[in-house]
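R.M. (postdoc): so does anyone remember the format we settled on? I'll just put the structure tokens first.
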């Protein structure tokens, strides 16, 4: 009967270890799967960014190969998370030979995740699909392919590498990245809680087995001593059999203890026990690698443990433990270790104390888990968030975030300077509050309705009532489960004014304000084509100020410039709105007369010649004199059937007017 009890206890302990071992192995595979999901995202980001910067086709090949592996369309390398892509293909496949084709969804479905864990990984996987869309859009932009109205990459244009780089470093991209990493981090936290639960349950059950086994073994020894004394003389074979059974049970107990140590090593978990009666501290083998010390170099003690705690955390750890003991409650705390070489590690420590019948604490047990990598990742996210915030605040463009209803959520300093409202005031305002009276608010509703980015120039009103022209780029984005609209606003009032001024100066003569020669020749070519196409009349005359060189030499170039402006003003008043007047060069002017016959052009030229000659030109202290002009008139005909020939005919007629005495009109 005793053997049956012992066997049942060992069977239960063995079954417990096997089950725990399987759970630890499952947890390890779950960690590998989560790490592979993270590694896949990092690899895709690296290859996409490298490709748009270098245009090296190898990076594009690696990107789509990684995507095919993740989707189960290409063989999965053994130990994917440790694959070093910069090795040659032969070395890479030798270290990581191709395995079977299996998608991440299939791998997740095969492992015994809890519903919560599955939801987190599925969310990370789905969000990875979203960031892939941004990466593919960037790759296509770098190759000159863009989306059409249906969202297909059918529009061909010049490659836009800057847009591609911006897409992969945009706020939307980093937010999409966080949507992958946050669920993975939540998953790791859930898995850590599960593993900790496994070890807490294992420690509790092992403690129970220890007490039970102690009683059973003591009883077993006494019974076997009795049996030995009774049977030793009768049957030597029975004695040998008894010794064999004791040896077997001892080996089974050692095997169970070894399996527990292996489970802790697999999970990178350490366990400890502190005897409060003797102050003796024992560690499991996995604690030594966490502290990075050799077990032969140190005698384990609470003082040794306290020595490795970071000086700034020692009082907190000691206070937490003492409160746990006094309150009869378990504890859980994160703190730092200061290693011998000065490096800092972060650990998650948990523990619980057991008491005797009088309530006196007699034994504390607990676990310690290295969470340095998780802490580094959390710090990286905080650093990136701080960097992004600094970039937004230092931007010279106004940046604002609004909700679906159009109310401001966040603005940067440049935005407040642009519109004159403080951040506090804007937090209580709607985007429509910045529109001047009469401005239609169609841009924001259109973005909400179509969920498509938009860029327009709109007038906005500042707090002081002044209105300015703003270039607004707005993009709908998702932050968690909430839809937001990100807007970038830039004051382009002065830019557009300068643009119009440049356009005017490119078309007009700076001195007279008339059209310049380039615009004249372009318009003349169009008018000749139109007249020939519809068989309409077209005339032109060339005008030259008489004795202009003498005016410059006698009165100076300033008076000469004033004479040019005087003639230009008379031309503007005299010519019809349908006519085009231009300064052709020097003191020469050309007037195009659409829909005008030769006789009508001659009559208009005669009247113009008389008006210029009939108005005195005042020179100030030099007295006054009269300006006269010579005009040559030409009309479109077979002999003048091109712009060049028409100009040449008018020019020849003008010089004929000069030779025949000036201040007259001559027909070509």
């Amino acid at each position: 009967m005793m053997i049956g009890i012992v066997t049942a206890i060992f069977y239960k302990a063995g079954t417990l270890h096997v089950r725990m071992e399987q759970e630890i192995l499952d947890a390890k595979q779950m960690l590998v799967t989560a790490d592979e999901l993270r590694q896949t995202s990092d690899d895709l980001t690296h290859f996409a960014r490298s490709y748009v910067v270098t245009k090296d086709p190898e990076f594009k090949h690696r990107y789509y190969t990684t995507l095919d592996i993740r989707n189960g369309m290409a063989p999965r390398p053994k130990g994917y998370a440790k694959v070093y892509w910069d090795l040659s293909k032969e070395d890479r496949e030798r270290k990581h030979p191709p395995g079977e084709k299996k998608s991440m969804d299939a791998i997740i479905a095969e492992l015994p995740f809890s519903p919560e864990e599955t939801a987190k990984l599925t969310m990370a996987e789905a969000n990875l699909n979203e960031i892939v869309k941004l990466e593919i859009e960037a790759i296509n932009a770098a190759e000159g392919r863009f989306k059409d109205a249906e969202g297909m990459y059918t529009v061909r244009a010049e490659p836009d590498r800057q847009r591609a780089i911006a897409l992969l470093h945009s706020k939307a991209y980093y937010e999409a990245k966080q949507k992958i990493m946050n669920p993975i981090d939540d998953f790791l936290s859930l898995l850590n809680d599960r593993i900790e639960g496994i070890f807490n349950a294992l420690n509790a059950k092992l403690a129970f087995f220890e007490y039970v086994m102690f009683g059973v073994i003591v009883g077993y020894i006494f019974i076997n001593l009795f049996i030995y004394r009774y049977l030793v003389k009768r049957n030597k074979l029975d004695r040998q059999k008894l010794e064999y059974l004791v040896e077997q049970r001892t080996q089974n107990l050692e095997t169970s203890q070894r399996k527990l140590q292996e489970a802790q090593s697999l999970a990178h978990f350490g366990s400890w026990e502190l005897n409060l009666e003797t102050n003796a501290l024992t560690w499991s083998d996995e604690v030594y690698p966490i502290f990075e010390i050799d077990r032969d170099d140190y005698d384990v003690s609470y003082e040794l443990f306290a020595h490795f705690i970071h000086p700034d955390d020692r009082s907190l750890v000691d206070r937490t433990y003492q409160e746990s003991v006094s309150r009869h409650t378990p504890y859980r705390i994160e703190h730092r270790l200061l290693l011998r070489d000065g490096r800092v590690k972060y650990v998650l420590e948990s523990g619980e104390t057991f008491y005797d019948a009088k309530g006196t604490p007699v034994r504390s047990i607990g676990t310690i888990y290295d969470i340095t990598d998780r802490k580094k990742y959390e710090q990286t996210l905080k650093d990136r968030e701080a960097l992004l915030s600094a970039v937004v605040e230092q931007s010279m463009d106004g940046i604002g975030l609004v909700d679906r209803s159009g109310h401001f959520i966040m603005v940067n300093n440049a935005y407040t300077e642009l519109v004159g409202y403080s951040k506090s005031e804007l937090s209580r305002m709607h985007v429509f509050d910045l529109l001047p009276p009469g401005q239609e608010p169609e841009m924001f509703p259109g973005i909400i309705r179509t969920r498509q980015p938009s860029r327009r120039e709109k007038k906005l009103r500042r707090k002081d009532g002044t209105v300015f022209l703003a270039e607004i780029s707005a993009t709908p984005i998702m932050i968690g489960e909430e839809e937001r609209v990100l807007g970038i606003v830039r004051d382009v009032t002065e830019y557009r004014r300068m643009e119009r001024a440049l356009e005017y100066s490119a078309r007009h003569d700076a001195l007279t304000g008339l059209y310049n020669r380039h615009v004249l020749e372009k318009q003349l070519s169009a008018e000749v084509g139109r007249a020939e196409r519809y068989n309409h009349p077209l005339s032109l005359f060339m005008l030259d100020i008489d004795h202009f060189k003498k005016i410059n030499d006698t009165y100076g170039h300033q008076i000469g410039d004033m004479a040019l402006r005087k003639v230009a003003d008379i031309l503007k008043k005299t010519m019809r709105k349908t006519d085009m007047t231009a300064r052709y060069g020097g003191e020469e002017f050309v007037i195009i007369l659409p829909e005008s016959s030769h006789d009508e052009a001659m009559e208009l030229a005669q009247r113009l010649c008389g008006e210029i000659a009939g108005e005195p030109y005042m020179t100030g202290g030099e007295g006054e004199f009269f300006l006269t002009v010579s005009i040559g008139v030409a009309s479109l005909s077979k002999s003048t059937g091109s712009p060049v020939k028409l100009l040449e005919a008018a020019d020849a007629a003008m010089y004929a007017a000069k030779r025949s005495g000036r201040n007259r009109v001559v027909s070509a």
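R.M.: ...and that's the designed sequence above, right after the tokens. Also worth knowing: The longest helix spans residues 171-231. The chain has four domains: 30-185, 194-376, 398-497, 508-667.
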